[in-house]
Amino acid sequence: MEVIRAIKEMQNRANLWRRENFIIGFVPTMGYLHEGHLSLVRMAKRRADKVVVSIFVNPLQFGPKEDYEVYPRDPEKDLSLLEREQVEVVFMPGAKEMYPQGYQTYVEVSNLTQGLCGAFRPGHFKGVTTVVLKLFNIVKPHFAVFGEKDYQQLKVIQRMVNDLNLEIEIVAAPTIRDWDGLALSSRNTYLSQEERRSALALYQSLKLAERLILGGERRAERIRELMQEYIKKFPHNRVQYIEIVNPETLERVDLIKENVLIALAVYVGKTRLIDNKLIRVEG
Ligand code: AMP
């Protein structure tokens, strides 16, 4: 496994591979890797000849009051995990390499980024699409794997790829959870033991919503209320949003008639966690 830090070197390597007709699979990450990330890597390994994983904590996608500075980092451990997965290249650029002095170009997907996390994290998705497009131009993958854990991000990237005619397949990977249902996240490391117990309310409230819908409840407002009530019963929890949306357009649904995505963001103490679940509904 090779670690590449320079953009030009990564591009040269990708060009070489492409000349030899290797299929390049790509998994972008911000590091502090867990089994969720590794499941994406394994998915990429199954379909690619050469797998590139990037580790880059992208300053552009963090708000001024967010956790860029303190975002957990452990490059040594990440590299040893990726070595075990037999990844070909880990691309680890520095922030100055990606955004040198004078940088001023951005990519923005408009409608899909308005709701859900976009409503509370202005500029976040602009930061995500910009860095992902840059990474695509550097790594030159045939396909890239993204987790459904960040469902809105997945949809926004799919939209960008379609709208800009990028010849890259976007592969979606299911959310990997801890034994009790908590979605794995690098930010779970911020949680105290008691907060960890409260954090389970995200997943449990999604299961509650699923039971309600399967039991015939069709009023989104009612479901959101009951989810909110459930989550608030635990200490430290503060709901930022609970939304029931169309899984493709991410537009709010009032009366549930077909498949819906339920997505939520909750502060557990100072830690903001997100989760979501696709609920299948017979028409
Ligand atoms: P991050 O390092 O948080 O930017 O995540 C990198 C990639 O891993 C994104 O495509 C995420 O959606 C994905 N990911 C993060 N957590 C999980 C998880 N628990 N299960 C599956 N994929 C995940």
Low-confidence stretches: none
Largest beta-sheet characterization: 6 strands, parallel
Overall geometry comes to globular
- Proportion of strand residues: 15-25%
What is the CATH class designation of the largest domain? Alpha Beta
Report strand order across the widest sheet: 1-4-3-2-5-6
Helix content: 25-40%
CATH architecture classification of the largest domain: 3-Layer(aba) Sandwich
What is the fold-level CATH name, i.e. the topology of the largest domain?
A: Rossmann fold
List the bound ligands: adenosine monophosphate
Oligomerization category of the chains in this entry: single chain
Helix/sheet category: alpha/beta
Radius of gyration using CA atoms only: 19 Å
Structural notes for this entry:
It is built from nine helices and nine strands. The strands form two sheets. A six-stranded parallel sheet has the order 1-4-3-2-5-6, sandwiched between helices. The protein folds into two domains: about 170 residues, HUPs (Rossmann fold, 3-Layer(aba) Sandwich); about 90 residues, Pantoate--beta-alanine Ligase, Chain: A,domain 2. The radius of gyration is 19 Å and the shape is globular. The relative contact order is 0.13. The model has no long low-confidence stretch (mean pLDDT about 100). Strand 8 and strand 9 form a beta hairpin. It has about 280 residues and is α/β, with parallel strands linked by helices. It binds adenosine monophosphate (AMP).
